Amino acid sequence: MNPPEAPVPAALPDAAEPAPQHELWPAPFVGDRPVVASLTVPGSKSLTNRYLLLAALADGPCRLRSPLHSRDSRLMVEALRALGARVEEVEGAGDFGPDLVVTPASWDDTEPVTVDCGLAGTVMRFVPPVAALGRRAVTFDGDPGARVRPMGPVVEALRGLGLRVEDEGRGRLPFTVHGAGGVRGGELVIDATASSQFVSALLLVGARFEEGLVLRHRGADGRGVPSMPHVEMTVEVLRELGVDVDDSVPDEWRVAPGPVRAFDVEIEQDLSNAGPFLAAAVVTGGRVSVPRWPERTTQGGDHWKQILPAFGAEAELAGGTFTVGGPAVVTGVDLDLSEAGELAPTVAAICAVATTPSRLRGIAHLRGHETDRLAALVAEINRLGGDAEETEDGLVVRPAPLHGGTFRSYEDHRMATAGAVVGLVVPDVLVENIATTAKTLPEFPRLWAELVGTDRGA
Ligand SMILES: O=C(O)C1=C[C@@H](OP(=O)(O)O)[C@@H](O)[C@H](O)C1
Ligand SMILES: C=C(OP(=O)(O)O)C(=O)O
């Protein structure tokens, strides 16, 4: 539909501009029909962006097979190009786009550059320590939503390593890192209670510091690092590329100085992004299979194996295929999601249609994700007639009859997919800005349409 008024000239003050208009996507409703399907999803965001970054640091050209192609991975590619790496697309065997070949960066250029982080935590946290290896002034900025995401421990760590960082005292985006042609390294103490990405960011580059890195986490009030499987993923990927990492002491990581070995790697599919599709089986009493599920993985999305049975679903990994069968009646859960916070929006969507109350714990740090996810989930579930409430470290969701309406997504891909899950069993749900799923899964609307349109394959 055309807007009723002519476009507002850019010169007018903000207050005169109309509120942003996002498309409202009618979420497919299946009612009583069980969703039965089999599908795979594109590559893991977390693995793709780690391997891309490590390729730029490696001792030779590297190849990523079946990588993710999404907004977050493109932002990482552009960031690494800005720092001097070459990244090329080459034909591959993946179902979701070409492979990527990366020629490592040369660190000698001095021309200042700007890096757009979008809303990608992996770009805004992982790339600044890489900029420290070069000789450029690198300015980092991102979406309005990125400017409020926690960044302080990365900025302070860079200063602790001797770098000059201009941040106007905010400890957030935008800021400029002044590379001084190398980092000596040594010991650092950070508080990573707000994000595991602070730990991963420093570990990923630590081997390229002259003396390596000894990193310790000391959380305020003794609190731990959330999303620990993501730190374990970082450690495992580094070891696979020949980097010596000692994580034998809790909350302490020792990275020895040395090269990052060039590699050729197949990226696993994104198990977190498989979540909404598996949730479709749970809320509709259907059956969804995901072939090529890894036997062993560091992806937090592997937690679906424990999480979905807690709702009464059957879950089985057999012959490399993960299959979820939904229960006749979805019961609520009491779960600590501190290890897998990025799954929480999908989990909350299932809780919203469950028949008994749920409690989700250990996810206070979701307030610093793409949006304040605890507030957003409460607002959107309750807008549809639900009964959700924030707690200090999570959510309580009680059963309530839901009705149709708008489910806002707050530029958050996982809010958008949570709305789609609810919309399967609640008629007339309109998800605002489904295109925001392009952050990590641009194919979401197509895959979702295929999911609800098929009754074969599982
Ligand atoms: O390192 C990573 O790839 C990620 C770590 C986690 O961040 P937090 O520790 O901030 O939750 C996760 O939620 C995010 O989606 C991806
Ligand atoms: C928290 C998330 O993303 P990011 O990598 O931007 O932190 C997420 O994908 O759920």
UniProtKB/TrEMBL annotation:
Catalytically driven reaction(s): 3-phosphoshikimate + phosphoenolpyruvate = 5-O-(1-carboxyvinyl)-3-phosphoshikimate + phosphate
SUPFAM superfamilies: EPT/RTPC-like
Keywords of the record: Amino-acid biosynthesis, Aromatic amino acid biosynthesis, Cytoplasm, Transferase
Source species of the chain: Kocuria dechangensis
Record gene name: aroA1
Residues given in the record as 3-phosphoshikimate binding sites: 45-46, 50, 195-197, 227, 342, 369
The organism's taxonomic lineage, starting at the top: Bacteria, Bacillati, Actinomycetota, Actinomycetes, Micrococcales
Name this polypeptide is given: 3-phosphoshikimate 1-carboxyvinyltransferase
Similarity annotation: Belongs to the EPSP synthase family.
Location of the active site: 342
